[in-house]
Sequence to fold (421 residues):
Amino acid sequence: MIERTPLLNGLTQLALALAFVLMLLPIYMIFVASTHDFVMVNRLPMPLWPGASLIENYSAVLGDNGLGRGMANSLIMAVGVTVGKVLLAALSAYAIVYFRFRLRKLLFWMIFATLMLPLEVRIVPSY
Amino acid sequence: MDKRATFRGLALPLLLIAPQILLIFLFFYWPTGNALYWAFTTQPPFGGSQIWVGLQNFQQIFADPIYWDSVGVSLVFCLFSTTLAMGVGLLLALLVDRQLPLYRLYRFSFFLPYAIAAPAVGLGFRFIFAPDAGFVSTINQIWPNLWNPALDGRDALILIILANAWKMTAYNFIFFLAALQGLPRSLLEAGAMDGAGLIRRMRDIQVPLILPTGFFLLVINIAESFVDSFGIVQITTGGGPARATDLMVFKIYSDGFKGLDYSLAAAQSIVLMLMVTGLTVIQFRFAERRIHYS
Fold:
């Protein structure tokens, strides 16, 4: 933005618009699919515009038989995990960065190594 | 080497770090220790306690060609997914950083894909790319069976690579953008005064200065493509037509939970962990010397 580059600006906007469509297309398609009833969803090709069953589908999903409870659980878990994670990580990071002590490198790598193993491996023994 | 003020002492830092260490010990090292134990033992077929078999589980998996197939698939998946995600993420961050009109909209919307849970991503992509009922099915009407992830292994692999890259592009984008916005504008202005055009400034000033972020993202992307790709595979292809999308992590799940052979699964997960650790160590060794932290 220092000099005038109308051609590059135009190309940039074009590229960004294209990326916008590509990145949001899956989300949009899922949304459109969620507003159709069962018959329309399986048609070929998939309809591109939202349909008429929005309220019906969403009330079925968010009600007691659907995701309502699941969402509440997820919310509780997400808030708890976030708060806990940030707190603990801030403490440990502070300790590792601002102090010089013998075990510093070892502890850093111990914490970092936990990124390496998939969750699925830890779950059975934890249970 | 330390350019910041540090304190000496042992008691206080250990105290600060203690809760984290306790947590990871409880939820990571102890279960991993258990998994290690499982990897070196096996359960006799008619019940009873474990018997020690040493390296037999490992020998079994290394002799299995199916296992090596899944290693190959995982490597291909990692390579393409990481390259695509980091390349596109960097490009989008550079473009959005220019702060042309509407950039706030793009900044918000480009992050959204990461916020979507992996199974939902898998479902959405399966939807769009389904050969008979999806968005891409129109291509199939012109050339029948050109795109069929249910039958063609390569199409299925492309599908999960795209799904994973889509998600990680959003992640890389936000980190690159944050790094770019931390660069002082005066550097770019100085470059412009010296006659550097826009592309030259991007290439020679902005990109080299955000290499520390790029290195971090490389490590995270590679680790993620090995370890967190499970959700996408499970929902879209379930291991793929004829095991074409049988990533290592998915194979661990199918051997362990569906095949009920925990020892084999544990051995595989140890190998996977060592592989990811090895890749990370290589990256640290290779790149640490080339990146200057300001």
